[in-house]
Amino acid sequence: MKLEHSGRGRNIFRFNYLILQGTKIHPLWGTAQLFVHPRFMHGAATSSELGVYAYSAAQVKKAMEVTHYLGGENYVFWGGREGYQTLLNTDMGRELDHLARFLEAAATYKKKIGFNGILLIEPKPQEPTKHQYDWDAATTANFLRKYGLIDEFKLNIECNHATLSGHSCHHELETARLNGLLGNIDANTGDPQVVLRAVDITTGWDTDQFLTDVAESTMVMLSVIRNGGLAPGGFNFDAKLRRESTDVEDLFIAHITGMDALARGLRNAAKLIEDGSLAELVRKRYQSFDTEVGAKIEAGKADFEYLEKKAMEWGEPKVPSAKQELAEMIFQSAM
Amino acid sequence: MKLEHSGRGRNIFRFNYLILQGTKIHPLWGTAQLFVHPRFMHGAATSSELGVYAYSAAQVKKAMEVTHYLGGENYVFWGGREGYQTLLNTDMGRELDHLARFLEAAATYKKKIGFNGILLIEPKPQEPTKHQYDWDAATTANFLRKYGLIDEFKLNIECNHATLSGHSCHHELETARLNGLLGNIDANTGDPQVVLRAVDITTGWDTDQFLTDVAESTMVMLSVIRNGGLAPGGFNFDAKLRRESTDVEDLFIAHITGMDALARGLRNAAKLIEDGSLAELVRKRYQSFDTEVGAKIEAGKADFEYLEKKAMEWGEPKVPSAKQELAEMIFQSAM
Amino acid sequence: MKLEHSGRGRNIFRFNYLILQGTKIHPLWGTAQLFVHPRFMHGAATSSELGVYAYSAAQVKKAMEVTHYLGGENYVFWGGREGYQTLLNTDMGRELDHLARFLEAAATYKKKIGFNGILLIEPKPQEPTKHQYDWDAATTANFLRKYGLIDEFKLNIECNHATLSGHSCHHELETARLNGLLGNIDANTGDPQVVLRAVDITTGWDTDQFLTDVAESTMVMLSVIRNGGLAPGGFNFDAKLRRESTDVEDLFIAHITGMDALARGLRNAAKLIEDGSLAELVRKRYQSFDTEVGAKIEAGKADFEYLEKKAMEWGEPKVPSAKQELAEMIFQSAM
Amino acid sequence: MKLEHSGRGRNIFRFNYLILQGTKIHPLWGTAQLFVHPRFMHGAATSSELGVYAYSAAQVKKAMEVTHYLGGENYVFWGGREGYQTLLNTDMGRELDHLARFLEAAATYKKKIGFNGILLIEPKPQEPTKHQYDWDAATTANFLRKYGLIDEFKLNIECNHATLSGHSCHHELETARLNGLLGNIDANTGDPQVVLRAVDITTGWDTDQFLTDVAESTMVMLSVIRNGGLAPGGFNFDAKLRRESTDVEDLFIAHITGMDALARGLRNAAKLIEDGSLAELVRKRYQSFDTEVGAKIEAGKADFEYLEKKAMEWGEPKVPSAKQELAEMIFQSAM
């Protein structure tokens, strides 16, 4: 697992290249920026224009080559314009088919050039489009399964995008993990009150905030540990300073606070895991399934007739407390 | 396609049975109510208690038998308590595994008793749980695919739940349709301002509103027509009167307005389809793919090298307008 | 009441001037653009910098003079940056005091130059700041009352901003009207699903949509008629085309659809008012107050002892239906 | 300032009375429950029915007397049904007039019986109505100002309701404080992801959660300290256990965690205030106003001509960083 600052688009490669020469530092990932130029106004791989599809393929091809050349560990697809503004003028089925063909070609090309990094998709529900196809982790997993791409891609989860799609960050991380898709984490945070994030009028882009809340970073780290870490992925700081933060030192303060928050989260998560009370509380909750009947159910061998017989035999089930307040107390005590 | 009033839980069967004797009317669907009684406080198929899992299986078994006996055309699963209040005390992976086993057993039992109706899952993002596993159409599709159940189930889409999950109703219908899962529609509407729907304190249940907006019902009907209708599914009026609507006539007025809204939506959708301008606008938007290169892409035969060559050859792509305003004008003109 | 296209900032005056020479057409309103330039990053009248406060005053002074010179009928304040990103670094009390002093000075200057137009404030909850001081109509009314400015200003209501603050557009219009503050309407609409509106990355500004929904425009027009019209205010089309709408004709289509929607709304509202059933339904609902006791309550002469005596005398009150479904049916019938 | 557990409605008085006899403990506040019984379906003071208005007055009269008799320190109005479901059937102006008359009569009666406690209004945006008249602190302040009641009432702020209205809890507390209205705090929290809180189907009421987040409780306590404490108000634990928390000990754990969170918040806030860096950062941000020109502006003596002259003289203003990242770092360091 690595903490590293990455960026988007063409410039980042030059920046990384200058720094990396003669060092052992690799880019965490590379990407192609396919959403700012007007040619991408209807999307890149999902553009209604064939020419744009081809142009985007050429650009991703080049970006993958450069990432490989620089020793990048992963490659990220963030489909900022892969979505729609209104279904009235959109053939969603055809656009999704095109997206699948595009990603398929990318997976093929990756193997061809011998790039062993992971291909990552970064879910986001909307902005700049009204609806983005990679809405959240589950939506993206469904897409990958439908088109037979589930083994070729993993996800890059960003807490901010989780919030925008109505989920907690922890939910998105766990959903990715349970689908075998947790690959990388964008280490910035969402503002639960700002369903709409502050738009930077000068650069024309949203200003992602650095993660400073230690309770949230602890939840994040619990998922990462359960996932056995993130390698070859890592954390990247995609966040930017607020437009109003114009001092050079603001950049350092923001990174330090963000990294500190993650480090404190990791220590808290370790404490929680070493202490074991929370895991024990969860284990106990499900212990009625650690039985012969439970095993039969989990093995798919308990049909409705069998279960009805058991239910009649047992009568009204006894249902214990969920111990939510205790779980929250244990969690808060580790902060 | 049928317009019919259905309800939830045990009572409906009695009600339907009394009415249906000696008629040719069948229930649109049957269901089991597995969320009000305290035994279901942690869920039914996803309860942490084995006894509740078995109890629920027995209840669904009986409800499926009764639905079959009454000539019901479908069977609905609405997992009101299949979700979590906090991830701190929840083993989400194990709960989802249990849910899959439960639905698998249901599909097996359906065949065993010769019930030919469709098994429907009704997505809903939350309420009464903080997070419900059948969050939206895409999330449910991913679950069905992951556990190999995609061919055994379809979805029952409710506009209100679409709104709660941050989507338009039309989006959910189209997502269901494109995944081959559009089975039935709950004919009530969401209130975009009421992210929180009015809770009826007496009955302890939310009061779904009848659909009255003709623009929305037109969008709904466009999806239904594209789907080739809903048979053997249909529209059901799960909506209830407001707590403040205490006159007997309110019940009739609500149903009449709701059915009229759907009828007007169907006429508008038919008008739009007969007129053809909207479909033509969409067709034209993608016509650059109706070419040799486009066909190659859609057949999965255009790799990155080929596309790069084309991109170089063509230069900067010309990107036409998306004609959103025209699409909206055409749509509004049919109202 | 007038339908007119206005814009923001400096350019509009030139545009208007070129068109207006030798005509009888006046600008609906003028305004100063105090949010794009980095000098306004912390606000204009609420900037933490004295120099920015003075600069803004000079700019508004000039804009008011030009508006007056061009025969403008109103002057609009939209406080895009008058708010905060975090309360941690903000003295909200001091900033609000500054804003009041600034608006006070504007009201004084208006009189000094003999400009008889109305000063309008346009509420908006957030974007680009996390929290904007003119959050909604009620918040702005409270501010104006607290600082003794309630008679000097009216409001410019935008449906889009209503949606962003969790209200229906109709609610905001009625709140403005009941506070005697309904002055002007921005004729664009919000997207209930897009809590976050599509950001145009090129221009760095949100793309407001034109109002196309006739049900909404009917509600808007009901408020306008109840208000006795909007003169000297009017409707302005602040909305812009989508970034993807690049044809010249898109601009015309958007304006035509928007104006048509308002015209159809006005006709529907007139129909509803002439028909009278909706007004009669509302009048009847409150008729128990059209009595001697009711009059006493409304005159502030019914104290708690008197009311207790009446309550004892009357026993359990009879509560009739609210007739919401009937009201919705009447409303929909006029569409 | 006091930490105390209070409840709603009739039962609480009996409960308190039994406990309080022979002790020095007083109820923090009393209230009347005017929203569950069907007679209040259209509201209490804003019901369309005269009889309900009188009935409600009698009930509040009695509740005020009992609160006074028990030595209660405040009296709370929570207008759960004072709002509307749709504006189509509602005369909002008349309902607000009735509400004002009702509160006026309550203020008069309070004085008559010699009750010196504060009258508190608890803002909440919606639920169970679509729109509640006491939407948030600013809306309620506007109402109180419009009807000349601003000196007779204060506010009871609940973090959960702040979240529901799109604000942070801190924003609501500060808005109340700056309007001289911060009277009491409901010590429960909102769930930013659950715009819709889990509804307890058995009791038919939402389950407010206890505050466990120390960062939030620190923000809360910063406002309380700035307000010079809350006396004669305090914190009340209106929160309830989750429906799934059925053990007796859950009740204790929840209260302990909630009180601990507030205690830790108070210690953090004290640390931040003693340290002084955050206050200093804010003070410095506005220091350009601590000058002769600044004083003139704040005294309302700087007109537009004077400010224009200053702006010309000074040229382009220099705008320093807002130091948001530093403020966040200081805040997090105190956790």
Summarize the structure.
The structure is a homotetramer of 335-residue chains. Chain A is α/β, with parallel strands linked by helices.
Poorly predicted tracts of residues of chain A: 1-16, 194-206
Distance between the termini of chain A: 22 Å
Chain pair forming the biggest interface: A-B, 93 and 92 residues
Going across the biggest sheet of chain A, name each strand in turn: 1-13-8-7-5-3-2
- Helix count of chain A equals 12
- State mean pLDDT of chain A (0 to 100 scale): 88
Q: Percent of residues of chain A in helical segments?
A: 40-55%
Structural class of chain A: alpha/beta
Beta percentage of chain A is: 5-15%
Q: Based on DSSP secondary structure assignment, what is the total number of beta strands of chain A?
A: 13
How many strands, what sense, and barrel or not for the largest sheet of chain A?
7 strands, parallel
Morphology of chain A:
globular
Helix and strand pattern of chain A: EHEHEEHEEHEHHEEEEEHEHHHHH
SSE map:
The structure is a homotetramer of 335-residue chains.
Chain A (H helix, E strand, L loop, with lengths): L2 E2 L5 H11 L8 E3 L18 H20 L4 E4 L5 E2 L7 H21 L5 E4 L9 E2 L4 H10 L6 E6 H6 L4 H10 L3 E5 L1 E2 L9 E2 L4 E2 L2 E2 L3 H13 L8 E2 L11 H28 L1 H9 L6 H7 L5 H11 L9 H10 L2
Parallel strand pairs in A: 1-13, 2-3, 3-5, 5-7, 7-8, 8-13
Antiparallel strand pairs in A: 4-6, 9-12, 10-11
Helix pairs in contact in A: 2-3, 6-7, 7-8
